[in-house]
Amino acid sequence: MGVQTTQWPSHGAFFLKSWLLISLGLSSQVSKLLGCPSVCRCDRNFVYCNERNLTSVPLGIPEGATTLYLQNNQINNATFPAELHNMQSVHTVYLYGNQLQEFPMNLPKNVRVLHLQENNIQTISREALAQLLKLEELYLDENFLRTEQVEIGAFWEAISLKLLFLSKNYLNRVPFGLPMNLQELRVDDNRITVILDVELEHLPSLERLILDGNLLTSKSIAEGTFRHLTKLKELSLVRNLLSYPPAGLPSTHLLRLYLQDNQINHIPLTAFSNLRKLERLDISNNQLRVLTQGVFDSLSNLKQLTAQNNPWFCDCRIKWVTEWLKYIPSSLNVRGFTCQGPEQVRGMAVRELNMNFCGVFTRAPSTASDRAVG
Fold this sequence. Notes:
This protein is mostly loops. The chain is about 15% helix and about 10% strand.
């Protein structure tokens, strides 16, 4: 017997062919509906157009996309397609590592997180940010921003903005007219030389302020500048030119105060008054030789005090620190009180000094700053 093969009836073959054609047609329509720019890759709600040498934002971003990856291209146009602005589903855009020279217009109207760091952005207009009423996080690190090229009140209408990173730019002032709901502001590694109290007075929600790596002196910070920041939890002034801590620190919620890598040579007795919630204080890498007795008395909640790399001079004036260190609670971690002089005790921990040493060593030459804090 020969092998029998199943034959499709003629009407069955017609049905199968028709079904295939219809399926292909539907597939084509679905593909168009959920299309993806040919230069990109789309996966669910994510559109990957990064690292493709693009000079502009591609058209045809599919509806329903939530996250756009456009980083590490050569995008240089400041005005994006209007269709992008009208895409209501997009909430996160990565545009870092491009060649933008201005803050772009026509970004998705509902964007919440926007990464624009590592571009060539030099100007920011109020109009551009007024389009982004739902923006919560804005990263503008490592651009070429100068204070005079940021329009006054440029950020004011971004009413939902909570986090603003302006690190590693060329700002010489804190931008004026920041939104009232801002919770975190980073302006570290700029060229800020002066802070006026009016520049920070309308930020009642600010919890974290990073001013590291600027050119601030103690006299260039207006007295009471930080007093308005009643919800501030962290203040960092590392790598500036301070000779003493700023006056009028907010006392209600401050938990962390970082003052290391300055030129602080004395701390007034009232510098830390009423900071009863402060948990961390760093005064390391300064020019402190002595401390005024009682300067830490208000810090009832302190858990970590770092003081290394100061030229501590262990004569009679530091005896009170020796006694204080012997009776601090076990919950307080203190590091860095090491004698740098006189020669007889160089390298010795202050807490290990004999409490009867006072008067044995030659007193260091008196300086104006020593007299102020002795």
